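Hi R.,

As promised on Friday, here is the backbone we talked about, encoded as structure tokens. Could you run it through your design pipeline when you get a chance and send me back a sequence?
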């Protein structure tokens, strides 16, 4: 659902809500059970918050204006480096290569985190499925 962009915050995870209801339905008899219940509730709350964060990330993206500004800044910076070192071709070549490599790295990072659940660098559901399998084992 996150890869398709159809996940919404209005529909809560039924499994997590049921787990929260079950944890709160228990009436603890002693301090240890109260502590355990509080920890369970805190962890379910953390799971709900993580789900909310993943959904928000799946809807975010870098807009075209930001990409345009990034590339204008990159071209301007490379031109500035070339002008500063224009008296020595070796120096200008090395400086431009270093700056271009840094810019390419930045672009790659932005592309990787732009749409986390879509494309070549997408985060799949495998890690979440592994957690579910590990939690199901007694």
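Update: got your reply. Pasting your designed sequence below so it's all in one thread:
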């Amino acid at each position: 659902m996150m890869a398709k962009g159809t996940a919404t915050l209005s529909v809560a995870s039924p499994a997590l809500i049921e787990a929260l209801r079950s944890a709160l339905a228990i009436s603890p008899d002693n301090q240890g059970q109260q502590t355990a219940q509080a920890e369970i509730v805190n962890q379910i709350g953390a799971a709900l918050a993580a789900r909310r964060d993943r959904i928000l990330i799946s809807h975010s993206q870098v807009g075209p204006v930001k990409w345009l500004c990034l590339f204008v800044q990159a071209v301007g910076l490379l031109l500035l480096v070339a002008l500063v070192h224009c008296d020595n071709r070796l120096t200008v070549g090395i400086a431009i290569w270093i700056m271009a490599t840094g810019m390419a790295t930045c672009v790659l990072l932005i592309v990787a985190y732009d749409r986390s659940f879509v494309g070549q660098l997408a985060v799949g559901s495998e890690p979440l499925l592994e957690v579910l399998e590990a939690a199901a084992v007694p």
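One thing I noticed while checking it: Residues 31-59 form the longest helix (29 residues).

Thanks again,
M.
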